[in-house]
């Protein structure tokens, strides 16, 4: 079982020595996605809700490039700059995952790259 690097114009370019996604066997692992606009590389305006929406759209872009979709996500990890943003993040997050949402961990962190308010990573399984 090898690994295949996933890249797409529908997610920001890596800002370090990592890949936007990796496919290995039946699994796709995404790098943590900030609320960065793929075209500009800048954080979107609108606070944690807008950044959450963009981060999840970036994840969707990586998954689609690998032949998967959001319905195949089995686990996410959400990193928040402040747990005070949990409710706002959660409201947007729920719109991306309908019935049978993935398992999730959410943690507060001391800081995120580029001053982001939220970063999300995902694991999906190809069926």
Calculate the mean pLDDT score and round it: 96
What gross morphology would you assign? globular
Question: What portion of the residues fall into strands of 2 or more residues?
Answer: 25-35%
Classified in CATH, the superfamily is RutC-like
Low-confidence runs of at least 5 consecutive residues:
none
Number of helical regions: 2
What is the CATH T-level topology? 60s Ribosomal Protein L30, Chain: A
Number of strands: 7
Order of helices and strands: EEEEHEHEE
Helix/strand class: alpha+beta
Radius of gyration, in angstroms, nearest whole number: 14 Å
What oligomeric state best describes the polypeptide chains here? Answer: single chain
Termini separation (Å)? Answer: 16 Å
In CATH's first tier, which class applies?
Alpha Beta
Give the tally of structural domains.
Answer: 1
What CATH architecture do you see? 2-Layer Sandwich
Largest sheet properties:
7 strands, mixed
Helix content: 10-25%
Structure description:
This protein has a single domain, classed as 2-Layer Sandwich (60s Ribosomal Protein L30, Chain: A). It has helices spanning 47-65, 86-96, and strands at 4-6, 21-24, 27-30, 33-34, 73-80, 103-108, 118-125. Strands 1, 2, 3, 4, 5, 6 and 7 form a seven-stranded mixed beta sheet that branches. The protein contains two helices and seven strands; from the N terminus they run ββββαβαββ. Helix 1 (47-65) runs parallel beside helix 2.
């Amino acid at each position: 079982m090898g690994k295949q690097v996933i890249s797409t114009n529908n997610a920001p370019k890596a800002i370090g020595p990592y890949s936007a996604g990796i496919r290995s066997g039946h699994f796709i692992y995404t790098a943590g996605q900030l609320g960065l606009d793929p075209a500009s590389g800048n954080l979107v305006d609108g606070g944690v809700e807008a950044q959450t929406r963009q981060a999840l759209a970036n994840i969707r872009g990586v998954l689609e490039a690998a032949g998967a979709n959001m319905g195949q996500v089995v686990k996410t990890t959400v990193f928040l700059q402040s747990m005070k943003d949990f409710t706002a993040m959660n409201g947007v997050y729920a719109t991306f995952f309908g019935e049978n949402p993935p398992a999730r961990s959410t943690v507060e962190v001391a800081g995120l790259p580029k001053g982001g308010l939220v970063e999300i990573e995902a694991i999906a399984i190809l069926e």
